[in-house]
Amino acid sequence: MAILSIKNLNLEKAGKRLLDGISLELEAGKTYALVGPNGAGKSTLAYALMGLDGYREIGGDIIFGGKSIRKKTVSQRAKLGITLAWQEPARFQGLKVEDFLLASCGARGEGIVEALERVGLDPKRYLSRAVDKSLSGGERKRIELASVIAMKPKLVILDEPDSGVDVQAIGKVFEAMDYLRSIGATILVITHNMRVLKKADRAFLLCDGKLIDESKGGDVAEYFKERCLKCPRKNNPIKGEAGI
Amino acid sequence: MKEINELMNRAKLEGVLGDPETASLFIDNNKVLSSSGVEGLVLNLKERKDGVDVFVRVLPGAVIGKPVHFCFGILHKSKVQKINMNITLEKGAVMNVFSHCIFPRKDPSRHLMQGKIVLKDGSTFRYFEKHIHSEEGTSKVYPHAVVKVGKGARFLSDFELIGGRVGLVDIDYDMRCEADSSSDFISKIGGRGRDVINVRETATLSGENAKAVLRSRIAARDETRAEVVNKIIAKAAGAFGHVDCTEILQGNGKVKAYPEVEVLHPLARVTHEANLGGVDNRQLETLMARGLSKTEAEDLIIKGILS
After folding, report:
1. Distance between CA A193 and CA A220 in Å, rounded?
2. Do B290 and A50 touch (CB under 8 A)?
3. What is the ipTM of this complex?
4. Domain range for residue B21?
């Protein structure tokens, strides 16, 4: 059963069409990858799903749990169980990791220690630290992922969760994704990493704001490697050349 | 005794009185309610019509083990409370002070602190100033001080409003820093309503390798007006100063910052960073994507900035 249906999604900004007639469905509890060259519209699609400022004036519709969320704010979508982890997470002057994670738990206020452990960070060392520039990029990414885990969401959009994470810690990112899946979360992960792509049940290939292909993760990975990386017309596909 | 209890309750200072190892001073309006010293610390007081003269001297080499507690309150109707605070740390002395300033009255109250602080060579003084004002914004406070930071001395001042509304806060600290000394001044104030926040911090680094950091964290909600002037003058080789000012604006208020840096020696260095404006959109959206409302997200971000 589809937890999310995107129907003919269009988005224009400053006269440029960033998303062009995208339709797709995500089934509950599965992992999906979103791939494509830089500027293809992957992050734009993520922001539109989350309902960020400037990404809510869409054509088409987004159905989550059977209801349109088109007019819902970021907070309202999050309360329904949708969340997003940014490729470059925000830093917060003075805000403690503990308070940042507690913000994800709602009234429950529990699970933050476990969430940190799941991304391989020692709670004793990290809970009292600030979510600011004193953290490395990789640490910040893992804390972002911990806050997603603490939220126990239904749909997680991960924008390149592996980027900036060192080789030793990348296994923890994969484990965190496995954990999210084990608690029933649907994952939509934007990635260029073939290892991440191969973990996906299905993958979507975006180019120039259009959905070009949908297949098994490995198949799209192969297609992306063989065709997209070599393509001289990045983000300018010839109609019909690579249709679904 | 009633006044002391009220001050202790508001400042959460249970257990301070009666501890022979803890020096303390409680003043309400122009009356000294209680004072106690400890070995190595000499405390003299003189009540005046409109306030109290306070003389604190820490003897050479004395290390005051437990924090000293000052508590200044205006619990009764008063036009003004003037505290002349004279603090001297002799060579090598060490003292930490927690100073609670409690002005809960609904009718206007005015508190003037004129400090003269002398830190002799190698001494260390940390001053944590915590303010609790009325909820009506009727308090006007003027913490002013001139601080002489001697050779190799360490000075830290941490000003924070922990309860009530600002009303008017006018901070003016002038630090004169000698060789190898280190000074760190931070003010954290959140205003709302029609509050007024003025911060002037000056550090003159006249000795070689003197260091100073001036940090301001201001949140101006509603119609609050905030103005921060951070000034560092570096005059000697190896002197280093840094100004770091963050002012967050919400509503129809106004925030201003004037980082003023002056370098008078080719081997000295001063840096400054200022960040003024509304709450960062990415920060807001991150917290909202975890389920917080916009207001909850703003409050949490500001809590972090003022922590």
Report:
1. 12
2. no
3. 0.92
4. 2-281
